[in-house]
Amino acid sequence: MTNLDGKTALVTGSTSGIGLAIAKGLAHAGANVVLNGFGDKNEIEEIRKTLQDCSERTILYSDADMSKPDEISNMIAQTKSAFGTVDILVNNAGIQHVSPIETFPPEKWDAIMAINLTSAFHTTRHCLADMKSAGWGRIVNIASAHSLVASPFKSAYVAAKHGLVGLTKTVALECAENGVTVNAISPGYVLTPLVEKQIPDTAKARGISEESVKKDILLAAQPTKQFVDVDEITQSLLFLCSPAARNITGTNLSIDGGWTAQ
Ligand code: NAD
Q1: CB 142 less than 6 A from any atom of ligand 1
Q2: What is the reported pTM?
Q3: Domain that residue 217 falls in
Q4: What is the pLDDT of residues 26-49, one digit of tens each?
Q5: How many distinct structural domains can be found in the chain?
Q6: Is-contact 30 6, C-beta < 8 A?
Q7: Which segments of 100-154 does DSSP mark as H helices, in order?
Q8: Is the domain of 212 the same as that of 169?
Q9: Is residue 61 a contact partner of residue 35, using CB atoms and an 8 Å limit?
């Protein structure tokens, strides 16, 4: 089991879904964790406190908006002031919007680019120098099967996720000699609020029922015919943080039930 005692992890978009599962996994592996994301303040405080109590690590929360570069800078400054450094950076925050490109709202395009791609540029540029000086660091970007293949009506998301993998490879090369690895994980469909919310829009865009979206669109893409579980992503991320993965860098690890093998 990966031992992350003494490390500090920052997981963007970790108040829900995949990010929350990753934050829990990192804390149980021994890391102090900074949570980030939106939601009900009381519920987030409950998540923070419960995780701190059961992991016996320090768990902090930042409400920084990943579409705002100043808030990203402040979040990292606060993390450094609390823990000294960020050793493990997980760029996970993401949103989706499903629409034909002719009617795709430009403000949704901008928001998806800012949150799903540009935020990773800002977090990385603020954290990398310390990781290089320490001679150890892990950056994991949560991309998607849509970093490798496209689906109609998801132009911004597909473009942002392809871009995130380009960023992953570039940064991996820039710190390859410094003990810092940079990888992407590309899940197929995971039943989180992000996917549940897009089912009605996909049904509307394609003129089919919501049940048919699940069966004939989402799971049709995955040869295993199973949704991916958040714990599968967490376990792979913990492996990427382990000493055994020190020579794995610049990769894009698919966890997609065979989707992109087709
Ligand atoms: P989710 O909706 O459950 O969680 C998204 C998280 O991002 C939440 O914590 C939310 O508060 C946060 N967030 C949204 N906008 C933010 C902002 N402006 N600033 C800070 N935080 C913000 O979604 P999820 O399915 O867990 O997705 C997590 C990541 O995994 C995303 O990058 C998504 O693209 C990727 N992904 C998801 C799936 C899937 O099927 N669910 C598949 C492949 C990739």
Answers
A1: yes
A2: 0.96
A3: 191-227
A4: 999 999 999 999 999 999 999 999
A5: 2
A6: yes
A7: 106-113, 119-134
A8: no
A9: yes
